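tool=predict chain=A
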Amino acid sequence: MKQEPENNVLVVDDEKIMQDSCSRILLKEGFKVCTAGCGREAIEKFNCNPFDLVLLDLKMPGMGGIETLQRLREMDPGITILIMTGYPSIETAVKAIKLGACDYITKPFTPDTLRSAVNMALERKSRVAGNHGLRRQLKAKKESDIIIGKSEAMRNIYELVRRTAPTDSTVLITGESGTGKELIAKAIHNYSLRKDREFVTVDCSSLVETLLESELFGHVKGSFTGAIHAKYGSFELANGGTFFFDEIGNLSLDIQAKLLRVIQEKEIKPVGSEKTVKVDVRIIAAANHDIKRATAKKTFREDLYYRLNVVPIHIPPLRERKEDIPLLVNHFLKKYNKKRPVPVTAVLPETMKHLMACDWPGNVRELENAIERALILEDGSTLQARSFPWLVNQKQAEQIYSRHNHKLCCLEDMEKHHIKLILRETGGHRGQAANLLGIDRKTLYKKIKKYELDKK
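tool=predict ok
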């Protein structure tokens, strides 16, 4: 059976005839094939494109197969690599498997041997992932809604989304700012039975408390000063669909009590009305801080927490899944290349090393902003470290910082240090700093106050 074109294969061999023959065989099977004539070219292409499988020759001039294998595995520990080797190199092929290759085939091989080996390698990969074609299943309706990540943590999240989406269970998504909580919520909606109905988002941190109740539940004419017309609330607009509460921890206890009623009774009461209105909505909530701790402090209702936390999904910060950074960088390059006269087609290994060394306190949003800004600064077709001046300055500052601090500093110290650098880079402009950090202004103001950076 032919493979879907979604399976991208990189063939790495210094012999053009081997590149051509492998490409011809795999293209007939429906694979999308890219070739490289040496290890260095393979790494450049791997930097710019996600591949499901790398077919790698062991004996090549310059950077050999073993070194190329190690470099590729550093860039993406989950990549599937199939070794091609001559009979005298079997011992080296075994060494390659110990370093992370999935299998090897010996030259010369028949088309059937290649097809069988490639299909077995991809089947093995799908079993490890726990769900064949998982990333395809979570492709969203819009390019901006695509979820990127091959780390074990993200694969677990994909599986949770796949299992949760067809149900009507409430979901609580937790994670730091910029990790992609709304993307996960949209994925759940897009693969649910409600996908053709509305997906309504309410950002609980941006609405004024006095207007929030009217925004959620609607109001009748004359219910308060300025209510010259009746208004439908967000719950009625979302009827039959999905309602997403972003930053739900900012809701007052009064609104929390009314939300609990919506979940339990499936009904709302517009402001100023004595009548209730039945609503059929699925509720997904997100929070960037510890809601469980808020229940202990009595700032968040414990009964509401348990109603929301039927299916908990936690998105780890980018610093805990750095193997996803190359994929994200490539995705953002493709996104912002569309606006450039000269597209960036390669990322220097040194540049990627810098990007992977950063802790990204603003997570994926900060990384995206950094790539967009770098493409504005970059004139050529290769993304270089100089395109991230604030990142280079940060590394220099950290080296100085570490020389004068022999004890390991805590994460909060690093976050404070990083925010100081970004504020210095933007000349104290908080709006620009928030954009670079990938967090909203309100969050930045809180951190500035927390670390007393406004007193410096």
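Residues 1-5, 130-141, 396-408 have pLDDT under 50 and may be disordered. Residues 319-455 form a domain with the Helicase, Ruva Protein; domain 3 fold (CATH 1.10.8.60).
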